[in-house]
UniProtKB/TrEMBL annotation:
It holds the Pfam family Hydrolase. Transmembrane segments: none annotated. This is HAD hydrolase-like protein. It comes from Streptomyces purpurascens. Coiled coil: none annotated. It comes from the Bacteria. SUPFAM superfamilies: HAD-like (SSF56784).
Amino acid sequence: MGMKTGAHIVWDWNGTLFHDIDAIIGATNAAFAELGLEPLTLEKYRELYCVPVPRFYERLMGRLPTEAEWQLMDDIFHRYYAEHRVACGLTAGAVELLSGWRSAGRSQSILSMYVHEELVPLVRGFGIEPHFIRVDGRTGPSGGSKAEHMVRHLASLTGVEPGRTVVIGDAADDAVAALHVGARAVLYTGGSHSRVSLEAVGVPVVDTLEEAVAEAERLAA
């Protein structure tokens, strides 16, 4: 183990470490089909996707879904995703990058908006849990921003300074959450968002996790 450099990475899970975009597109299209909407291609999905999700549906429907439609779509989405998630794996190179960062004596954690009780066994199942000093999923209702969760997450990490912390995620919201706590961010194009929408945020945007970690190293130096 090298000396502690103080640099810390907060990893996002879905669309970042966990390569689940195919399951997500499939689940979205299954939900759309229920309301008679056309299926989306990956490019179209990335171009239009935004949080909160009802606003994304509004872009496609020309109006906000009703409470009943939203409930129906949300249920179908989660049912489809749960079935197809099992075929998804970690993003290429993730395991090597996680163990490399850890063996350099640096720390890392996961903060995800995926339900905590489901996230932990998933991370454990891939055998990567020992690489993280903390794994936090979402507790409470879905649909909010990551910013408040990030405040709690960093507060619970001992000896981690926001100024030496880099959030790596695939969504503009990951960068918003990072800036909210005084951390840096690197955004990865392999998830839900297009490069164009990520570049609008004004933080580094990369196409591989390897580049993301190299960038994190530079930012935390």
